Amino acid sequence: HHRTRTASVVGALKNKKNTGLTPITMEIGVCEGLKDDLVREMVDDALIWTSLHGLVVGDKNDKRSGEVPGVGLVHAPFSLLPMSLPRTHFIQACELSTIFNDLVDRVSLDGEFLQESLSRTKKVDPFTSRLLDIHRKMMESDKKEDIRLGLHRSDYMLDGATNLLYQIELNTIASSFSGLSCIVGELHRNLINHYGKNLGLDSRNLPLNPSISRYAEALSKAWNEYNDPSSVVLVVVQPLERNMYDQHWLCATLREKHNVRTIRKTLTEIESEGVVLPDGTLQVCGKNVSVVYFRAGYSPDDYPSEAEWRARYLLEQSSAVKCPSISYHLVGTKKIQQELAKPNVLERFVENKHAIEKLRKSFAGLWSLDNMDTVNDAIEKPEFYVLKPQREGGGNNIYGDDVRDTLMRLKNERSEEISAYILMQRIFPKESRAYLVRDGICRSNNAVSELGIFGAYLRNKDKVIVNDQCGYLVRTKASSSNEGGVASGYAVLDSIYLT
Ligand code: ADP
Ligand code: MG
Ligand code: MG
């Protein structure tokens, strides 16, 4: 029995006698099926703790919460207790982090591979096509990125049937929750320090999560390599960002620990306020920018007009360190993930045989849709597949009968649109009981979890300055939900209890 939420936790919570504690201020019917005062007491403690420790997001019920900091805050959705994970799987995922960091860098240098692999997608997907246009222009101008910074997050699910850890995807742009996830870990540590005896849990089994400090350190080192003490880090943001505190945690740490200043701008603002000087220096509002950290720009919605595309191109042309560069961004597409999983492709980029073995072991089944056998199999057994477009941010994938319907339509129309997608083997993680807290309300659910490992990579020409695993993210969702995003409203933040 791997990765069931520690059986003793649920047992302890359910069997606990009524202790006569005052009911806390939550709606009637919270913690469905659980009348236990211990859970109520823990939820109450947790809600207070999140408010006192900045585990917060903007509240969608408050119009200004995505724009004005300090207004309309609500606790980030969280799981009351950490997910159990065998230590071996945690170590496996952490070890993969530096290998994927290397792989991204190597693949990013092969511009023709990126262009070629995405050439059919380009024809049918206008968004990917625009990214490829910028990438092509950079190739043609022979622009070299000497300083390269990647802040990636590789996501995994533990397959229930085989007990193997499979990569879901690798995010190379705007990898989120490095700010909030380590605070969730602290919340769980705090709760288990208080209630561990009642629960049969020991907080020493919670692995440390240095995600904020390591990401801030990597950004500060990139700032340092650029070597302009007057320069700032530019955080490219969406105009409305309810997950802004996750970003502010990182920016505050950069300022307080490393004395590095950040400015926040949307692509629209950058288009009107930014310039690239003849020597390549990027200036925004008169400030020199050494590092451009994208927390926007990964979705078509981020480019409502030509202005935003001009801004993206401007940033790419500058000598500032781009996190990510257009090449790193493209390496993170699902199409490239699928191409890398083909036989003999990894070998083009990785020399180390053990590294190749470890990477391959983490690859689930991935197929392009030129393979009619796979398409027909997916039409017959859609429940075993996920159909994925080249999109980020959650909510874009196709599951179940919709896989069949979409594939039948594309097949019958002989539509080229089929190249916009890849097919992936559907992973079925083992379910366990979890208490998911959202909007101050706790619900007990059958849940599944997704583990993300943050990774940072920084190099300057031949010198690798950082290649680190930088902590983790766990997102847990009701098993009835297909998608898994926290920001998109499907999942809650969680942490790990090693077994
Ligand atoms: P995005 O870039 O939008 O986050 P993902 O590939 O991570 O795209 O898919 C979004 C969510 O869909 C994941 O968080 C996960 O919950 C679910 N998902 C994706 N691929 C699979 C899969 N192969 N098996 C099961 N669930 C999946
Ligand atoms: Mg993604
Ligand atoms: Mg994802």
Please explain how this structure is put together.
This protein folds into two domains: 83-364 and 427-498, 3-Layer(aba) Sandwich (Rossmann fold), CATH 3.40.50; 365-426, Dna Ligase, domain 1, CATH 3.30.1490.50. Helices cover 39% and strands 24% of the residues. The chain is built from 17 helices and 21 strands. The protein has helices at residues 7-15, 37-52, 87-108, 111-117, 119-124, 126-140, 178-199, 211-226, 244-258, 267-273, 306-317, 326-331, 334-340, 346-349, 353-361, 372-380, 401-412, and strands at 56-58, 73-75, 78-79, 83-85, 147-158, 165-171, 232-236, 262-265, 274-276, 282-284, 287-294, 321-323, 366-368, 385-389, 398-399, 421-425, 432-438, 441-460, 463-478, 491-494, 496-498. The strands form five sheets. Strands 3, 5, 6, 17, 18, 19 and 20 form a seven-stranded antiparallel β-sheet that branches. Strands 7, 8, 9, 10, 11 and 12 form a six-stranded mixed β-sheet that branches. Helix 8 (211-226) packs across helix 9, helix 10 (267-273) crosses helix 11 (306-317) and helix 16 (372-380) crosses helix 17. The radius of gyration is 23 Å and the shape is globular. It binds adenosine-5'-diphosphate and magnesium ion (2 copies).
